[in-house]
Amino acid sequence: MNPDEYLKNKIKKHGAINIAEFIAETLFNPEFGYYQKSQPFGKKGDFVTAPEISQIFGELIGIWCADSWQRMGSPSNFILVEIGAGNGTLMQDLLRGTKHISGFHESFEVHMVEASYRLQQVQKERLSAYHPKIKWHEDISTLPQRNVIFVANELFDALPVHQYQKNASGWAERVVMLDGNGNFTFGLGAKVPFSDELTRQHADAKEGAIIEICPAANTIISGMATQIKQYGGAAVIIDYGYYEYSYKSSLQALKNHKYHNILADIGSADITTLVDFVSLAKAAEKTGVAAEKLITQRDFLINMGIAQRYEMLMKKASNEQQQELTSSTDRLINPDKMGSLFKVLVLRHN
Ligand code: SAH
């Protein structure tokens, strides 16, 4: 099936599709969706995520988990859950990096929540040697209900958002449609009614302003927060995103580490948006858990001891490894690289 033809036919038959549907088709269509592809992440893929850049990332997330476990009173039967684990690299580094922490590994079952069947297989191969009790789920609804530590890196940026644009008569939904030549183009659909809360929140937005709303993110964060509220636990969520609205579209496509036209070669490039951390934190707080003040990835990793970990690894490294270690560590925390664009949201039972 040619994805472009498929989507064009769909639009001809049923009319324009909204941005969320467009993203869902692009990323998750079972025939051509981007996440069905063989190797999206890593140096050979289209984009590199923090765990693929350096083992230190997963190790420090592990330190965070162990610290949270101790703050929870070191329970002996909690679940450690990663949502959207990609190649499974973070979990592998986390498990290896926390082996020496007394009683920690004996106290949890690992549960992986992964929407892509193919990536589930990759994770299974990768992780089976690291922990005897790992289970996989398609979504969070089947997780055992007990106290929990959640980890999610670059999950929320991959979820489909709706975009709304303000025009003279109010807010209308942004769509993908066909122009006179039958090519994809962005357009505006019908005017939409907003909740009072949203209308108030964005009352000062100018004409042309765009806001992005992610129902899938709301469902996942609310589910995570509800479980933490009921059974105790914590969550760490890392992603690139904002805590102030820019009122611009943040939709972007990446192919071979370069920006790619969003509307060209459907399914061949990764499509993401920046994560709206304001809405994530609000949705979590609505369930009654505490969202800690948002911090940058740089500050989070420094607090977790990235400098000390770096020094330790440098002592054992060859010249070549030292260079690699220095540049990858810089990439994670340099404010001009991933350090400040990436943010960390921590939820805790209060
Ligand atoms: N965390 C990994 C991969 C990030 S890419 C890393 O940092 O390298 C996004 C991941 O989320 C992929 O594994 C994708 O298949 C998964 N994913 C996307 N939507 C999901 C959903 N609704 N539920 C669970 N996993 C999802």
Written description of the protein model:
The protein has helices spanning 3-14, 19-28, 50-53, 55-71, 89-97, 117-127, 196-201, 215-231, 277-286, 297-303, 306-316, 319-333, and strands at 17-18, 78-83, 108-113, 134-137, 148-153, 162-167, 170-178, 184-191, 210-213, 233-242, 252-255, 258-260, 270-272, 275-276, 290-291, 295-296, 342-348. Strands 2, 3, 4, 5, 10, 14, 15, 16 and 17 form a nine-stranded mixed sheet that branches. With 350 residues, it is of the alpha/beta class. The mean pLDDT is 94. Helix 4 crosses helix 5 and helix 11 packs antiparallel against helix 12. The protein is built from twelve helices and 17 strands. It binds S-adenosyl-L-homocysteine.
Number of helices: 12
- Give start-end ranges of low-pLDDT stretches: none
DSSP strand tally: 17
User: Outline, from the CA principal axes?
Assistant: globular
Oligomer: single chain
Biggest pleated-sheet summary: 9 strands, mixed
Distance between the termini: 51 Å
> What is the residue-averaged pLDDT?
94
Ligands in the model, by name, code or SMILES, are: S-adenosyl-L-homocysteine
Strand content: 15-25%
